Amino acid sequence: PLLASAHEDGCICIWSIQGNLLKELLPFSKYDSVPVTALCTDISTEMLLAGNKEGDIMCWSIASFLEDPQNSKKQIKEELCWTAHANEVVGLFYEEEKNVVVTASTDGSVRLWHAKQGNYLGYFGQSRKFELSDISRMILPCDVHEFPTVMKEESKRMEMKKLDYPLILDRDK
């Protein structure tokens, strides 16, 4: 078993139950240091989901890391991020069987999203039934203006790294 903690500086820490820090994650987002306000995993703990104060949702694959947390080659990979709300995310739930993420915000809305693609499926209180099988439609809620972003393999900003060398001004260059 591991613990995940969300922090004001946007960092997510993965801890052993003995209290040892195993990994620090910094979500890839358009804003630096956005406070993380909600965390959840799927039942089998293969995915870690986080919501932040700006209304964004981030999704990581953590299965290979959990197999052997001491192995530095086993990485946690951010796979997807999307804007779910215009305001702070305060609730986050992943329904594994239907592959749906439920988000709640301080704006009072509760919305459904496809977990693997970040496609908008609807909101609680709408007059039509949810179409969970039709994920091909790319629609957005009226207050969201950006489509989901699938992370590329080369996006390494998600893991905090400590540099061993200082930056030095070279006036000749």
From TrEMBL:
Annotated protein name in UniProt: WD repeat-containing protein 64
Annotated source species: Calypte anna
WD repeat residue numbers: 82-123
InterPro entries found in the cross-reference section: Beta-prop_IP5PC_F, WD-EF-hand_domain, WD40/YVTN_repeat-like_dom_sf, WD40_repeat_dom_sf, WD40_rpt
Lineage of producing organism: Eukaryota, Metazoa, Chordata, Craniata, Vertebrata
Keyword DNA repair on entry: no
Keywords carried by this UniProt record: Repeat, WD repeat
Cited Pfam families: Beta-prop_IP5PC_F
Domain of life (superkingdom): Eukaryota
Domain IP5PC-F beta-propeller, residue spans: 27-114
